[in-house]
Amino acid sequence: MTYDVFGTAFKPLRDFCANVLIAAGVRVGISKDVANSLSQASLRGVDSHGVRLLPHYIEALRSGRINPNPELKFKKTATAAGVVDADHTFGHAAGAFAMRQAMQLAQKSGIGAVSVANSSHFGAAAYFTLIAAD
Taking the CB of residue 111, how many other CB atoms lie within 10 A of it? Predict the structure, then answer.
């Protein structure tokens, strides 16, 4: 995913967020989705769901409320539907994983719908539509 629409400000902000999360023990793949979501929200002017929440998420990791190294599980429940067990990780990463699963379902059946269980708040919902649009 390129996200060129955010210009030169995106990469340094995204990389900063990802590095903070990785330093806090978050797996690289998970940190990328969280960092992408937070930085995109801030650059779109949705600060309520953006980078300002990074300290909150670090505290949630430290308290054990968010799993930094989840085992995301997808279960197909119908031809074009499924559910993700997010293993109590970041909703940003769980939602991105679910969107990617939904996109695979849609390639085969024209539509895909995937729900998520056992995750934290998923942040700004536009992140998931941007994954699909990209």
Answer: 11
